[in-house]
Design brief:
rod-shaped, Jelly Rolls, about 230 residues, about 45% strand, mainly beta, 5-stranded antiparallel sheet, 2 domains, 2 helices
């Protein structure tokens, strides 16, 4: 018995072998074939996966994973793993203690001096408290939401909008107030934001005089929620 093949080392009978001992020679040859094929396909169970190992002409069996697991790579080889839930990213800020006077027909940024949550230092209650700024590693799409509560006045209209980097308006909401009622204006917007971008809430009212934006955790607030890259 000689003449092994190049790729897998299968031992094949020679012409002399076939004349002298045909059954035994083929038995030896086919045992080698079986061993090599098993190394190429080591799967044993429904759902098994097979991947190339570091040994030439030998594959490795990866048993089927569990429900909800995902296929990933650890140490250079595929493995099944339970995915880690993505953590929430965003902030929600609001105005407390003191109302803010808004001059007649003057675009004014609302300031926010308290936080319900802030996962990645989006906001500062003291420095530039009118803005939410996108931190390092968190560029992507955001859901922006705001609600602003104006003092009672039936004159004029109330406008609330988002402004990007102090220059670009990201849509706005306009409300005509009702007599003898506080006016609450809500607005939301989805947009792409880059690291370092900041967004403010700009308001305008033309009641004929100054009008307060109320300090209220429930009714005067600004929220940014990270939706993903």
């Amino acid at each position: 018995m000689a003449n092994p093949t190049t790729n897998y080392g299968f031992v094949l009978p020679t012409a002399t072998d076939l004349v002298t001992d045909l059954p035994a020679d083929f038995d030896v040859a086919l045992q080698g074939v079986d061993t090599r094929l098993k190394a190429l396909q080591p799967g044993t169970t429904l759902g098994d996966l097979v991947y190339s190992s570091a040994t030439a002409n030998t594959n490795t069996r990866l048993g089927i994973g569990s429900t909800s697991q995902v296929l990933t790579v650890t140490g250079g080889v595929p493995v099944w793993a339970t995915p880690t839930a993505a953590g929430f990213v965003g902030c929600s800020v609001y105005k407390v203690t003191t109302s803010q006077s808004i001059a007649n027909d003057t675009d004014t940024n609302v300031t926010f001096n308290a936080e319900e949550y802030d996962t990645n230092t989006f906001h500062d209650n003291t420095t530039n408290s009118d803005r939410i700024t996108i931190p390092s590693g968190k560029a992507g799409k955001y859901l922006l939401q705001t609600a602003i509560l104006f003092a009672t006045s039936s004159s004029g209209v109330r406008n609330v909008g988002f402004v990007l980097n102090g220059a670009t308006t990201l849509g706005s909401a306009l409300v005509v107030p009702l007599s003898s009622f506080l006016t609450r204006v809500a607005h939301l917007y989805v947009c792409d934001l880059a690291v370092g971008d900041y967004v403010t809430v700009s308001v305008n009212q033309n009641s004929g005089g100054s009008l307060n934006v109320s300090a209220s955790q429930q009714y005067t607030r600004f929220t940014a929620t990270y939706l993903g890259a």
